[in-house]
Amino acid sequence: MTRRFSFDLFRLNIEDADDLFADSNLLRIRTNDDITEVLRTAADPEQDQIQKTRSAVFKWSIREYRDLSSSYPERPLLHVVLARSVLERDGLIVTDDGMASGTSSLNPPLASTAVCLFDLSRHLVAVEHTGDLAPTTWKDFFEKILTTSARRLDRWSSISLEPVPEQNGIVGLFLSFERITRMRVTLRIPNPELNRYTKQLYEDLSNSGIREMTQDMKNPNGLSKAEEARPFASAVLAEQGYKKGDVQFEGLRNGTFEQASSGATAARGSVRGLRDFVRGLHANAKAKEAQRILSAITAEIDRIHPIPGVDEQ
Prior knowledge:
InterPro entries: DUF4747. By secondary structure, the chain is an alpha+beta fold. The chain is built from seven helices and 13 strands. The strands form two sheets. Strands 1, 2, 3, 4, 5, 6, 7, 8 and 13 form a nine-stranded antiparallel β-sheet that branches. A four-stranded antiparallel β-sheet has the order 10-9-11-12, with helices on one face. Helix 1 (32-42) crosses helix 2 (138-152) and helix 3 (169-176) runs antiparallel to helix 5. The longest helix is centred in the C-terminal third of the chain and has 17 residues, at 288-304. It is globular and about 75 Å long. The two termini are 44 Å apart. The model has no long low-confidence stretch (mean pLDDT 89).
């Protein structure tokens, strides 16, 4: 029976390299064409990353780059596969005389994989949720590969994947406090999907030339929770994934002082009966079935993270 295709949703953020002595004219990642070139280059074996642990050696790779825009022009998507290959693993080995501890190597090595779909129209990334890779540091090595790819292209930026929380995950926590005495959040500014709550904040930061800003807002009498005020706008922007790390709150909640955070866990989508089809997209990108598959996936992305309505602009 065909299984569900489950994925975690991340915001594609562009993070510039910090160097006070760098030339201001250095190339940066700014456009969708830049992002496309970084992903295409990342599929080169030269960008592979080695991970060594106490009991194993792994190789992380990106492969199967495909531009799916011809299959689904309404919503340009890029397809890659993230893979972790087991190069060596320590453990027990059966010998003719019994059992012995040793290191086993496979050639070619077995790999665990996850399909990743980059939605360039919304700057969102759907990463397949698999039991093999979910408990690993897959995100760190995915970003390392993308960074080395950007450097190879002489781009002094990197692509960061930031979890997009479930709807009202951050804003709901914000509103659940009777009084918020402290709120700490780092916002990233580029390419936001604006709504009526975040437009003014974005324009202010953009006009000031700010691409990343850490806010540590405090007031023992309580921060404003009004929708037109800065704390609420910051919470909404963070919930859209334009952040770095968690959003931290302190204040009075349910009658007691409480510290809480939100934003570390990505919203999860699931499309029934498409897992095998999605895993075959790299070989059947032009098949008639592809448009139906991609339409179902983008519909699920929009369900768990709705597009800001026209009336909110």
